# Entry
Amino acid sequence: MTLNKKVYLKAGKEESLLRFHPWVFSGAIARIEGEPEEGEVVDVYTSKNAFIARGHYQIGSITVRVLTFADEPIDYAYWVRRLEVAKDLRRSLHLIGHPQNNTYRLVHGEGDNLPGLIIDVYDHTAVMQAHSAGMHIYRKEIAEALKEVMGEVIQHIYYKSETTLPFKADLLERENGFLLGGSPENIALENGLKFHVDWLKGQKTGFFVDQRENRRLLEHYAAGRSVLNMFCYTGGFSFYALRGGAKLVHSVDSSAKAIDLTNENVALNFPGDERHQAFAEDAFKYLDRMGDQYDLIILDPPAFAKHRGALRNALRGYTKLNAKAFEKIRPGGILFTFSCSQVVNKENFRNAVFTAAAQSGRSVRILHQLTQPGDHPVNIYHPEGEYLKGLVLYVE
Ligand code: SAH
# Structure
């Protein structure tokens, strides 16, 4: 018997929960018993008064984020169990204790049945991000469970949720800060390459771990090519290109800070390598003036659409961006093009790129269709979790 407050669904609205979809939308709710606080654990009942799920309550269109479909308590042991499963999955992917790679995502929200929680690991530091009021409230218990599950691997836990928490919720202690340790050490290893990871100031959790496998694929195509890494951020794709034997590599980002990070990282791996240059410039301006010097181009822009309403404009943006690359890339060139907008699905994205290709009139073929790596798993009952889409194209 738990004493959780209860959320009752309208008749017929239990359908998606019976298929294990982890969200309860506000429109599906008939009534709420008691007045749950934001972030409180509530029980979800069908209109026929049957228990169906337990999760975090929050005011907004997603009212409950389901933590379990079983009648089990959400306590310290629950977090330990869930984190153990997440760790086992990463162990299966050979990501834990790997000598050449110590950066990976340990918890990917719904993909790990922990909606609202992201944990990235960089060597001995875990960066934890809450996207829901519930995960924020339980952050200390989660951090403790994380330490227990990961043991010696994790010495520091940095909590970084200032920009990801629902801004309207009335939550205390939202500030970023260490929940464990407090290391200034900031060099992590990805596939044998070194990265300065700036979890204090960097975007997201400090580094985009989701491109690890795609960067490796790029390395495979880089030999002898002139490479443009557009939207380079910390320069990830650039050092793989250098290691892969590129003739030259140009990294471009509109943020001067990103260009500094890229230069620092290049110096860390390939000190004094004159094949690399970085430019702080707007993508569209650069693409307009760059001429036809490149035969390998990477386009990995920020999410053009953050919500459904922005979809059409976003698709136009992808078409415009890719059209510029098709216009300029040398014959026999290879284009790595990505979208990380969650609301843009695979078909939408492919269509936007198709339109751009057609505008250029060039012969374009798909070599690879890319997505996020296994440490960013997609819960099959929550297809919305598939957010990263990429195409590798051969342009004649
Ligand atoms: N490819 C990177 C991640 C890119 S994140 C990686 O592998 O880690 C998106 C980047 O686009 C950010 O660094 C941001 O500063 C940059 N950006 C955003 N708008 C831009 C614009 N108009 N022109 C150039 N860069 C831009």
Summary: The mean pLDDT is 95. The pocket of S-adenosyl-L-homocysteine is lined by residues 208, 211, 231-234, 236-237, 253-255, 258, 282-283, 300-302 (CB under 6 Å). Residues 311-328 form the longest helix (18 residues). The longest strand covers residues 51-57.
